[in-house]
Write a structure and sequence with these properties.
This protein is of the alpha/beta class and 533 residues long. The protein has three domains: 63 residues; 150 residues, Alpha-Beta Plaits; 190 residues, TIM Barrel (Alpha-Beta Barrel). Helix content is 53%, strand content 16%. The structure holds ligand C2E and magnesium ion (2 copies).
Length: 533
């Protein structure tokens, strides 16, 4: 504007009564162009500054917010928590709480309905949390299915109210891509300064409280230092396990499985034992999950396979030859060399693949069906049977199950142990047997502890039983005693039935029903399943 003004006054002064002053005019044009140039530069510069600010904001957004839910991410959550900590250190805050919560059974949703549905569900959960508008709370998505919340108080009552609010928000089932899904969250709470004086400790303790809430299925859990003793014990066990893997001091026990339809067949489930001092064992329920966290489980699985197939080769010489079930873990499903390893073992020991069944838990199989499929198909090609273990405890889809070449479904013992007193479990077991038979699978009931349960299972048309009623898992010496008794009983039963058959033949009595018939050509002998050994 200054240049333009100068130019106008120059023209005015010089054009009044003199001839055209070219020099002044030229100067004015230069001044005008200069003015325009400066205007242009200012314009371009402010545009660039705008763009720089916008792109910086986008980088900040990307750096601090989660793409899927638009919630602050873990980094931002952490920074915010540090601010709260500083405020508490400056005495402008009395205390604060970190809440860590994840979606229960989210792996199942991802595995069965796909990651797309899983993502859509996370978005819906985030929207419900957002509208809650928790007073003074800072919400973030801090992991796959994990949300974090910072509250500027550590008062138990206030925290309890907020968590109730969150649970209420999840009560209505979610409609996601045509599916109706029930979602629950397991929150774990750690407060400053009671449960930690730095953010790392607080986060770790809130995380550990979250696992306690999950395990105990409580609405939420506040960090309890005693649970850290468990963590410490686990660390100790982990170190011991690493040492044990050098010498493999494990033993293999076997638990009998009886066929209720064809009494001439029996099986054994191989169960690993880790001897401790004075005839005690570290429970596989403790050390197998630890081994599953690393590749240690692969070494263990191969050890079990080798032992069991060697034992099978030995038992083949007996008149009664059992089949053997072996448990596989999630990590074994990624081991593409495993089928060939098993095939070689079977060939070396002259054992038929039909003598072997591999058990994969329902949760493992369903948490990633695509991962399980190639290995399962390859094992079936070899002729090895596949069983779904602990059926009923996972998030299963029968349609997916039907796509797998499964021979056996093992109903989890939580449905069997109280079968006499639980009408709902009776319905579940009866329908599972019906559906499994429809899919061409046999059904094994795990955890059979009483004769009454055996009768009910017979009524439900269940195929096989396993449990303390028949026998606990046995070491090899005790197992050979059990097998001897089993053979003797079977021989008596067989000769009785042969006698009956002869009498029926001579007296022209109609033949026995199919289930009572004896496969005369087989070397295997019948037994009474109700006998408690
Ligand atoms: P699982 O495969 O479901 O094995 C059955 C478990 O139920 C065994 O526990 C067995 O002792 C127990 N059981 C059997 N009948 C009854 C009964 O009537 N009542 C009760 N209360 N329990 C009964 P165990 O041997 O402690 O094994 C626990 C789990 O550890 C197994 O569950 C399996 O998931 C895992 N496991 C055991 N051995 C191995 C192994 O060699 N490899 C792998 N990957 N996992 C194993
Ligand atoms: Mg099993
Ligand atoms: Mg089981």
């Amino acid at each position: 504007m200054f240049f333009v003004g100068a130019y106008l006054s120059l023209i005015y002064l010089n054009l009044l009564d003199t001839p055209v002053p070219y020099l002044e005019l030229f100067t004015s044009v230069i001044m005008l162009s200069g003015g325009l140039f400066v205007l242009l530069v200012i314009n371009i510069t402010s545009d660039s500054i705008d763009r720089i600010i916008k792109s910086q904001m986008a980088v900040m957004q990307k750096d601090s917010y989660d793409d899927l839910t638009q919630f602050p991410n873990r980094k931002f959550f952490y920074q915010h928590a540090v601010e709260y900590l500083n405020r508490a250190l400056n005495n402008s805050l009395n205390g604060f709480a970190l809440v860590v919560m994840d979606l229960d059974h989210f792996k199942g949703v991802n595995g069965v309905l796909g990651h797309h549905t899983g993502d859509a569900l996370l978005k819906s959960v985030a929207s419900r949390l957002k509208v809650l508008d928790i007073k003074d709370g800072f919400l973030a998505r801090i992991g796959g299915d994990e949300f974090g919340l910072i509250l500027p108080y550590s008062d138990a009552k206030q925290i309890d109210e907020v968590i109730s609010q969150i649970h209420e928000a999840m009560e209505t089932p979610f409609r996601v891509e045509g599916h109706t899904l029930n979602v629950s969250l397991s929150p774990g709470v750690a407060t400053y300064p009671e449960h930690g004086i730095n953010i790392d400790d607080l986060l770790m303790h809130a995380d550990s409280a979250m696992y306690t809430a999950k395990q105990k299925q409580t609405p939420y859990s506040v960090y309890d230092p005693r649970s850290s003793a468990v963590t410490y014990h686990q660390l100790e066990l982990q170190v011991m396990l690493q040492q044990a893997l050098q010498t493999m001091p494990f033993e293999l026990y076997y638990q009998p499985i009886l066929d209720m339809k064809n009494e001439s067949i029996f099986g054994l489930e191989a169960l690993i034992r880790w001897p401790k001092e004075k005839g005690k064992f570290v429970s596989p329920e403790l050390f197998i999950p630890l081994a599953e966290k690393t590749d240690a489980i692969r070494k263990i699985s191969r050890w079990v396979l080798q032992q069991a197939i060697t034992d099978l080769a030995e038992w083949q010489k007996l008149p009664l030859c059992p089949t053997v079930n072996i448990n596989l873990s999630a990590r074994d499903l990624d081991d593409h060399t495993l089928p060939d390893y098993i095939n070689d073992l079977l060939a070396t020991h002259g054992v038929s693949p039909s003598q072997l069944t591999l058990e994969i838990t329902e949760t493992t199989m369903m948490s990633n069906p695509e991962r399980a499929r190639p290995l399962v198909n390859r094992l079936r090609q070899i002729g090895i049977s596949i069983a779904v273990d602990d059926f009923g405890t996972g998030f299963s889809s029968l349609s997916i199950l039907s796509e797998f070449p499964i021979s056996e479904i093992k109903i989890d013992r939580s449905f069997i142990s109280d079968l006499e007193n639980s009408p709902s479990h009776q319905t579940i077991v009866r329908s599972t047997v019906y559906l499994a038979h429809g899919l061409g699978c046999r059904v094994v009931a795990e955890g059979v502890e009483t004769a009454e349960i055996v009768s009910l299972l017979e009524e439900f048309d269940c195929d096989k039983i396993q449990g303390y009623h028949l026998s606990r898992p046995l070491c090899k010496d005790d197992l050979s005693d059990w097998m001897n008794k089993f053979s003797q009983t079977s021989l008596v039963n067989l000769s009785e039935k042969l006698e009956q058959k002869k009498r029926r033949h001579f007296n022209n009595i109609p033949p026995l029903p199919y289930s009572e018939q004896i496969p005369l050509s087989t070397e295997c002998l019948p037994v009474s399943p109700k006998k408690n050994h």
